[in-house]
Amino acid sequence: MGFDFLRSATTRRTTSALVASAALAFALAPASAETIRWARVGDALTLDPHSQNEGPTTAVMHHIYETLVDREVDGTLEPRLATEWSIHPDDPTVWVFKLREGVKFHGGEDLTAEDVVFSVERVRHEASDFKGLHANVVGAEAIDDYTVHIKMDGPSPLYPNNLTNFFIMDKGWSEANDVVAPQNYDAGEEKFSTRNTNGTGPYKLISRDPEVRTVMQHFDGHWDEKPQVTEIIYTPIKEEATRVAALLSGEVDLVQDVPVQDIARLQNTAGINVTTGPENRVIFFAYDMGSDKLISANVDDNPFKKPEVREAMALALDRDAIMKVVMRGQSLPTGVAMPPFVNGWTEELDKYELPDVDKAKALLAEAGYPDGFSVDLNCPNDRYLNDEAICQAYVGMLGRIGINANLVSQSRSLHFPLISNRTTDFYLLGWGVPTFDSSYIFNFLVHTDNGTLGGWNGSRYSNPELDEMMQAIATEVDLEKRNEMIGQIWAQLQADRVLLPVHNQLLAYATREGVKLDVHPENTPKMTDVVFE
Amino acid sequence: MNRFARAWDSDVAYSFRHSPVAMVAAIVALTIILSAVLAPWIAPHEPFNPATLNLMDGFTPPGTPNAFTGNTFILGTDDQGRDILSAILYGARISLFVGFAAVVFAMVMGITLGLIAGWRGGWVDSLLMRIADVQMSFPSILIALLIFGVARGFIPQDMREDLAIWVLIVSIGLSDWVPFARVVRGSAMVEKNKEYVQAARVIGVHPTRIVVSHILPNVLGPVLVIATIHLALAIIAEATLSFLGVGVPPTQPSLGTLIRIGQGFLFSGEWWILLFPSVALLALALSVNLLGDWLRDALNPRLR
Known about the structure:
- The complex is a heterodimer of chains A (about 525) and B (about 300).
- Chain A has helices at about 1-15, 55-65, 115-125, 170-175, 190-195, 240-250, 265, 305-315, 320-325, 345-350, 355-365, 385-400, 410-420, 440-445, 465-475, 480-495; strands at about 35-40, 70, 75-80, 80-85, 95-100, 135-145, 145-150, 205-210, 215-220, 230-235, 255, 270-285, 330-335, 375-380, 405-410, 425-430, 500-510, 515, 530.
- Mean pLDDT of chain A is about 90; it is low at about 1-30.
- Chain A is globular, with a radius of gyration of 24 Å.
- Chain A is of the alpha+beta class and about 525 residues long.
- Chain B has a single domain, classed as MetI-like fold (Orthogonal Bundle), CATH 1.10.3720.
- The mean pLDDT of chain B is about 90.
């Protein structure tokens, strides 16, 4: 076969450099033209489709479960399990979804309106990480086998945008296996749905060894036309050099999280293709500006409460240096915690201040910390491009103005619960916006935590006036007026310096020659889109 | 004849003077140890004071000026703009400290248990030696990993960073006491039936005193040899654990941590971040090991 020749040529050329690949203890099966061996930095945190609203988890879920609507690479919504959707002609607060007929779950059950109604209830459960996207839902009702009404608490013209990561489960299977409620990940719970699946997706789960290997095979009963890829072998490889080595030696076909330092080299390697593109994701720092006292600080009050301190921290951040050195140009520095894809983004908001160490020191002194203070900075080390290096660089920059940040970097499975459980004072987070609308950022990151909204508001920011506006935009029908309100909210958030944005990251996917896959703006590539050449 | 001259004329010193390998190894080891101890005074930069770092110095190749800042570093800089030479000096300090402390820990534990086993004999001896046998059947790095993992589970989150080095020392030390205990036990069993010990017993010297002041000095020779060789092993064990990311925290990188950081830049052409710390570790471990080998030969009359 043609590919075998290519692969062995690549192997021979790079064997001497591949000391690191010896660390790959697992032997991967030889590839046929239909198998894609997909590697990225981390594994899905769980296979429960409503438990973790997190990129790599969602990326895997999209292969096993399906959503009512799908978002194309250009941002438009496309039918998936729903063939059409519209606002009810007599009631502007009701959305009507017509389901695709003849859809089967992997276990053989038929997809009916009852399953959708069940999934709506499940995703709104307290333990669901997606509940913030369905905050305006009052209830769902099956009209007939293939029609569902979703009742909202007010007119919600943009609601279908919230459904691109809303996975449909089978009611009977969930009841039989006692997984009617989602797994509570942050509490350390494990359920049947953590390792077992029953979706309608194009691939069914064959085997799963968390953090090691997940195998999926094409589901013959799938409603859509058969994709070129019929088997997926998904392997998380945390070490950067090992991940690249696995691609160079032909052990994997696709590497999703290409380390920025290796892009140039891979582009110049024969037999390897690199595709790059912007991700709909912003990387930012956030701090607890609500509590009276911090957990890890050496002062008795909360410095982050003082606007001068927040301004000083912004003035310490040298975004251009991070872009040039840490990211090697693979990022777009920004002054707002919102990617340019999102409705509400303006060039004005995107502008950022240049670093000014003297002014920052003066501000700290003015705030009552002439000698600075010390605090822990929590950082993931296996989630975003060079996340740990970004934190390290910022620790240095903070050090120059007198703030002594102790870096605590750990795996994302430990890092994210710190934010959801509010046990971190100061942390790095990246936020992708699957709805392409500012309200997704507001509802999760800055709305007062009320159990449904504000689930990721580790800043403890609370502004009742803004909360009201954030809720109002969910049901505002006049789009012009809605955009005006979004602008007002952003102006207040920027003035309060609620989040400290660093940059939007650029993505790179590397594949062996003959495998074609475009960069997905939400970084949830679908293997059904892979083309073998 | 003064003390120095007497030492110079001794058998061991004679053997040293006639072993070029030992001399070179001693020079290399002493140079590294001295420069590590004096790192705060001789290092050109303060690599772990974040306030003195400039990110724009990052990835400067050795000996060439940085494209943005124009600064030059003899061995280049890493991804955060840290001077590699200074990082190695400070890193060697941590590696050596952990190595020495772990060996001292293992030595004290091994000697104590070995003396008890050898002196008491019977079921105490059987018990201790069976524990040793079980431990010998696992690679020591696995045991260190296990102890490290368990210890981290017990220590509260906010103290982990501060205690990481001590936990590491104890893990390596605990995984390494067996060779000391076995050698000491063997020697102690031989010594305890010798006439001078029996004489001491007859005149009613307390057993503890016999063990400590009569038997112990006579078993120290072989212990010294093991300690030297195990110093090299402990340094490598520390580097391995840090390379695997479970050792010292990244804010106080040892040589192993530096190698782990450098490994990420292996494919992108920044070879110096990996190479120089690796060479430093190699030189340190090899020279200490060669010294240990020489010491073993020099102290063994049968090999002369």
